[in-house]
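Dear colleague,

As promised, here are the two records you asked about, laid out in our usual form so they can be pasted straight into your sheet.

NAME FIELD: protein one
SEQUENCE, THEN STRUCTURE:
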Amino acid sequence: MTEAPLPIIIEVCVDSVESAMNAIRGGADRLELCANLGAGGGTTPSLGFVKSIQDILGEIPIMIMVRPRMGDFIYTEDEIKVMLEDIRIFKKCDIRGIVIGALTSEGRVDVECMKRLVDEALPLEVCFHRAFDMTRDPEEALYDIANIGGISRILTSGHGKTAPSALETLKLLLATRQEIMENDPWGLSIMPGSGVNAQNIHTLLEVLLPLGLKEIHMSGGTWMEGSMAFRRQDMGMGCGESEWSIWRTQEEKVRQVRFAVDSYWQDLINLYPPAPSFGEESEGSNV
């Protein structure tokens, strides 16, 4: 008998307490904590932010981005030392794991750098973030990451601008991941992210769930008008069009995806009724 699928985990990336609370109220299972999410794709959050989230939300599983700056993913020795120190500090907190990624100038995974970071992060979970989508070849990058060891998931848009637009590559990655699972004790998971919303989640689940999809990643965020009434003209801090705006996760956007995921999962569960327990008589049995 084919087993019923497990529930899909929804991870939401946030960079403020307000966004975190919106994500949880909307139904998020896990949070990725970052700074500069809307403007720079996410950098290392402050320790104060992490502790505030834990004080307010309790035991919600938390992954923490460790990325010392915006820009590319080629790091100097000094930057690597900063990342290692951040990992040491965050390991003292009660968190689920660390989110990292490093590349070479040729567009491959920086295996040596990643080994240093992963060794420091273990036994916490380690997620290789969307630096994966900046590699020259997704299959090559997947094998490089699997061979490093200690990495439990890859966050990826499938080398596309959004995950729903790159389903063929995501299918390839999930299929390849199944092939390497026999030699991978870390249970490496492919987690689609970028552009996931209530309008496309059904298609994403329909295509990828049969290939072993276990979790999805989203932000549910948008730029909101800030509350500053006085605004100096021709002045700024380098944030461009978002200078006076605030990036905020929208509770309703997360809730809509949660509802769609749970509804889809429940429909599948209904296709796989539980097997009779041992000794239970089947209908019409004469025994």
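NAME FIELD: protein two
SEQUENCE, THEN STRUCTURE:
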Amino acid sequence: MQRCQRVDPVRLRAVNGSPPCVPLSDRSPWTPATMPIFGDANIRKDDTRLRIFSGTANPSLAQEIASYMGLELGKVNIKRFADGEIYVQLQESVRGCNVFLVQPSCPPANENLMELLIMIDACRRASAKNITAVIPYFGYARADRKSQGRESIAAKLVANMITEAGANRVLVCDLHSSQAMGYFDIPVDHVYGQPVILDYLASKTISSNDLVVVSPDVGGVARARAFAKKLSDAPLAIVDKRRHGHNVAEVMNLIGDVRGKVAVMMDDMIDTAGNYCQRS
């Protein structure tokens, strides 16, 4: 059998469908069994690398996440032009990486949301393998339905924008309502802060007889009841309120006994906290 010599595969061409072969002397150490495979040896195998980048909304949170995972935050250059436009440039390669972008859309919601979209686009154009948008506070989530005529459903619009920008997955925390997960055409990881709150209350060693869970409105009774069950089936109180406009509400009645007890109020969103000040 004719033996083969190791040569540059780029210079070789197959003949009649058979791999090319160059004769060489019997002193060559290469045999068909020991001949190395060309091409695959130099392919990078680190395409599952993980990168965490932070926007300007909450860099301290992103830093804590990265430190908890034993990683360093990715280097990114984010700046504003004089007219308010946002510029994003990644300072390191993310080709073939799993990228996590930590950017809540907290106030100023519009700027932080636009910054997130541009960061997603930058990662997509840099050939990231997967892009996960980590949005602890999902802005526009309250606009998840039409309660009146001729209203927009902004939550669906924002979900479409994030998807079209190039995100492959979204991680959110305590959405205004779980139905908003269905607005995304990509996988959504919905995590809850309730376990953290329960651990905090447990550390205070408050007796279940001295505790009462308060629902700020009738619509939140089911959520408050589920929370109360996890607190040794604590009693429940309900606030009857009337909303006269956005961020404007009037407390009418209080159903339940809260006198002399530690009240834990559960709500889906706290914006100005004006309603809570009235209820107190």
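A couple of things worth noting about protein two: The chain is about 25% helix and 20% strand. The domain at 50-142+154-191 is CATH 3.40.50.2020 (Rossmann fold).

Best,
R.
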